[in-house]
Structure prediction request, 151 residues.
Amino acid sequence: MRHGMANKKLNRTSEHRKALLKNMLNSLIKYEQIKTTLPKAKFLKPQADKIITIGKKETLQTTKILVSKLQDIKLANKVKKTLSKRYEKRNGGYTRIIKAGFRYGDNAPMAIIEFVDRDLEAKRIDRKKKDTTAKTTKVTPKVEDKNIATA
Prediction:
């Protein structure tokens, strides 16, 4: 029987599972969409919804809870200032899971987990912008004496 077994173990120790959850939560909040395996996405979805629900209450205690769970002040502020304002009229269901086929190497089921009504520009936060002014130009060598006799 399966009594008293609260969540999936994902073949990891408890410390590894906690670190995995924290890193995936941080990435989901930062980029608002991540691609992962289906069991990990199903494990992450309720936790992400709880983080948004905590962020809706604007008290010092909820701020401390967010910082302790995410270990990042910038992302805790993003949850409180942007994500909680975006979903203030919604009573849950802040994330969705979209199945994305199977991984090439081991045929693991893949999924995309994203926020509903996400910001499309959040996906490009860390990408470097291409510099169009620094184009490579062909350098021609200088010829000093054109009247050099060839032997």
User: Anything to note?
Assistant: The radius of gyration is 25 Å. Residues 35-120 form a domain with the 50s Ribosomal Protein L17; Chain: A, fold (CATH 3.90.1030.10). The first strand starts at residue 33 and ends at 37.
